[in-house]
Sequence to fold (439 residues):
Amino acid sequence: MALLKVAGAMLAASLVAPAFATDCSEVGTPVERNFDKPACMLNKSPYISDLTLTNDHIWVLTGKVAIVGDNQNSATLLIQPGTKLVGDSGKDYLLIRRGSQIVAQGTANAPIVMTSSKPVGQRSRGDWGGLVISGNAPVNGCGLEDQNDPTRGFCELKGEGDSGLYGGGNPEDSSGVLEYVVVEYAGNEVTKGDELNGIAFQGVGSGTEVNYVQVHMGFDDGFEFFGGTVNAKHLVSTCNKDDSLDWVFGWQGKAQFVLIKQCNDFANNGIEADNNDDKRNSYPRSMPTLSNMTILGATGDGEATGQGILLREGTGAKIYNTIVKGFKKSCLDIDDAETMELAGDGESLIIESSIVDCATNFETEDFDITSWFQGGFGNMATDPMLVGHQLGPDSPAIGAGEPPFDIFFDFADYIGAFDGVNDWTENANGEKWISTAVK
Ligand SMILES: [Ca+2]
Ligand SMILES: [Ca+2]
Ligand SMILES: [Ca+2]
Ligand SMILES: [Ca+2]
Fold:
């Protein structure tokens, strides 16, 4: 079924069986490392031709590994199921530039893993840079605020971590496929305010397919969406040091089935949602549609602080069927006059059929967040009665969800990312495809 959704690159991914091996010397340099498979340094960036990473090697990212160019010399990076990519330092990261694609299609039995080169047990946040994908979908912040001006052109922004330009005029742009991909121990503070995240979607378009993807133990945010229209299903963000899911500069995508779980040692917000700090009404406005999220804060001893969902700087959002539980500061906060105005209009910023359960559910502001949430259809401030991240047998979330309204969303009549029976973080044998190493 997934095959039908994405054109050429996807077909190529499925037709290439793991029957051949990429010769390391063609794309990099063989290197002696203490891995369980031969190691190959990817040190011939920029890669301007199609490239396949086969699962018979461990591929060592060396510096900025760029699949280029910027809408020229475009290439496709194909990664076989079960393939591992590693990095040695925060400078090592994988960049898919505008016009190029990544086709990383793992399986529940053989996910694609991008991780630290250190041995298991010695890994920590920020051991390598992360994954950055840039596309040609709209972003905001270039002073093109008049949405009715047909001559306004499109906005391009400069990506974090010296990743080049992103954004453009094609909402349907495709940067490829990410499926059963785990990104862990990534992130790098290049300079203050310029950080590599676990996965950065920079102006990525809706032609891209994202399904079953985890970011674990990142040094900055788990997933960060910088504008764009990319949609996603089955996202897992665990133990990331800053925000588990962060958006800014006009993200207009959709997401369903999202599990966020913080760790006690460090964490900021579950969701940190911005439009644009400098120009809070910038167009296109951040306005994602999100359903079936389970957002779990850190409640134990440690430095984790933060809020479940922080909506600010003029963001819109349509949030349904979501559980927010256990954040030390609060479950829900809305900052800035522009954001409060959207919350007041009854359609631009809404939360419905959702459950909050924090010691302090709502921040006290000029805007009455308590009444706003309680006035939303189907909302409850109550114990969701979870067992782990699953709904327990007596959970009030069972059967309380709002049916889907948009063809992107799968049918789900419950609140939260899981239905109380099936656990999509496991494969058919009951084994986790996600990384479960928790610090
Ligand atoms: Ca970030
Ligand atoms: Ca952040
Ligand atoms: Ca942010
Ligand atoms: Ca506040």
User: Anything to note?
Assistant: The two ends are 37 Å apart (CA to CA).
